[in-house]
Design brief:
The chain is built from six helices and ten strands; from the N terminus they run ααααββββββββββαα.
Length: 233
Amino acid sequence: NIEVEMTFSEWRRIPGNDMGDLNSCQSCHMPLKTNGKHNHEFTGVDINLANAPGNSIYDQQYNSVLHLLQNAVTLEFGGATEEENVTIIGDSLFIPIKITSLTQHALPSGTSFSREAWLETLVIKSESQELLFSSGLIDDSSDLNLNDENLLLFTSYLLDKHGNVTNSVSQAHDIKKEMLPASPPRYHVYKFIGDFNSINQLEINIRMRFRAFKPHLLREHHPTLLQNLPVFE
């Protein structure tokens, strides 16, 4: 009785969707084409990883997923009030951001425990293009640094009867939800500590990244597929 794959339940719990018959699944996953007919790909976020980039099927699926995801979230600088802006106070740089889901279910959804969406943040010294601070970078083994205290990661974790993380749905007794909800917006504040006295201008670049599998899941059982796993922006 654990809700593990719960996209429909997430959609249905938004009152206007179910009771008002609004924001149907088809409106995003079967959009109208220019010829007035619906697209029947029913695009989600998975593509066939047995194919490689350059394969026509892979490339078609990739582009469809990319289009879907690039219409799923908006990112904005600023907090919940107009007073919350990017500021430097003493030796601390504060970067408030607002993340708004445009979907009608959590992000990630479906097998959310196998997926991850996160923010990659770069703070650069404009004059020299020196990277001063970062969060959400992928290392050489394609893994995220989960010890990064600034990392904003959206995913979920299945827990077994002992409360330990498991990758097996059949052994799941609970689920720890850390997804981006459909509503309301999520606010987050980055805090970086440093010497800003000699800096005239900063560049701050933030983007959301997404992949359908956490790398360790493929590395353990399907290592040859890992090289074909795309990271979407």
